[in-house]
Amino acid sequence: MSKLIVLAGVPGSGKSFFSTLLKKIRKSHIYVVSSDELRNLVNGDQADLSQDKLIFDMFYELPKVYALDKDAIVLLDATHPNEVKRNEVIKPLIPLFDEVSLVMFKFDKEQVQTQNIEREHPVPQFVLDKFFEIFEDVGEIDKKTFDHIYVITDKTQLVTLVDRI
Question: pLDDT tens-digit profile of 35-87?
């Protein structure tokens, strides 16, 4: 059964950590599409947003290729802060997968700031503050779009989520 998992959360909230954890445990048929990794590939710097139109065109095209694997678990690792936008961009992908889930990372600001500092490439504080201002919780559109919605508020929940997936 193929699965598309949309990760949503402010930078430093644990999206990439979760993707890495799932990949280590599951080992095969896991495909991670990361906006940061695509920026590194295209721009040589994940903080360089100059080619973001190209980056996100690639970001939402790659799952179409991975969907050819009928056992694929495809993780879309990007911030996805806006409910309308995150649903709009995945609509064309929904028919390609047997199951579509949203995993929202909702850690408090202090914890995210600590995790952000520990990242290889921390996001500047003013950018992190902006993401906290604009980030939208799970809404009615999400509830209609996704087969499953998981809200992660504690790192201990990640192991349980890996088992469910």
Answer: 999 999 998 888 777 888 999 999 999 999 999 999 999 999 999 999 999 99
Strand-by-strand arrangement of the 99-105 sheet = 30-34, 73-77, 3-8, 99-105, 148-152
Cα–Cα distance, 74 to 72 (Å, whole number): 6
- One-letter amino acid of 24: K
Q: Which of 36, 59, 15, 37 is nearest to 161 (CA)?
A: 15
**Cβ neighbours, 10 Å, residue 59:** 20
Beta-strand runs (E) in 3-139: 3-8, 30-34, 73-77, 99-105
As beta bridge partners, residue 7 has 77, 103
Q: Which of 23, 1, 8 is nearest to 141 (CA)?
A: 8
